[in-house]
Amino acid sequence: MSLGQQLAPHLPFLRRYGRALTGSQTHGDQYVRATLEAIVAAPDQFPRDVDPRLGLYRMFQGIWSSANYDELGDEPEAIGAEAVTRARLARMTPLSRQALLLTAMEGFTPEDAAYLIDVETDEVERLVSEALAEIEQQTRARVLIIEDEPIIAMDIETIVRDLGHDVTGVAVTRDEAVGLAMEDRPGLVLADIQLADDSSGIDAVKDILAEFEVPVIFITAFPERLLTGERPEPTFLITKPFQRSTVKAAISQALFFDQSTVPA
Description:
The protein is an alpha/beta fold. It has 12 helices and 5 strands.
């Protein structure tokens, strides 16, 4: 099997990581593209002594760490999500967010994450704790949950409340989700794809976003329905069954890039 064939299944998830890390689909994809170009230009530089997925993320980390984020200050004044990103990054070290995303969202072990960001394993654990503490200090929100499985909905609600957020409601259908969102506008939406009456969480989110902007996290057993590369994809996508730490990390990161929670 060629290297390209080995890496192909991991690219949608690397793109997810890039978007979560940068807060921008455009910027995230630029880093992924640069990573692939580097691999094509010098295939002998690709790490062959580790799993292909680990090697791919290692190459990405090399591209990311070599970029000078401060150079963005020379660009025109930032607006929207980009301005939010800069405000947040001014308060947090990128390394701690990388450690958090790699372990909690991408599922790497602390040992693998240490290899990827070139630190000791115990340093990864410290960085993750630092990232969570900093994000929790910066962000508070009211959350709408769209989930038709009662046990899963209860679990998600507990996670949300444990993080210090409020829950505006739990919807099990598209119509109910839209109704709750219009009645009490949330600052974050957590949505399943397949709902109780065979309606779609994707359609519910589209209806909500047509009325107002709000960050969205999809939690689904069908990630392939969203990670297609053929249309704008969600920045935050969690695959069922999920770990509580993954949901916590995604919530923190989604709010990290939301303008309404930027500290004064």
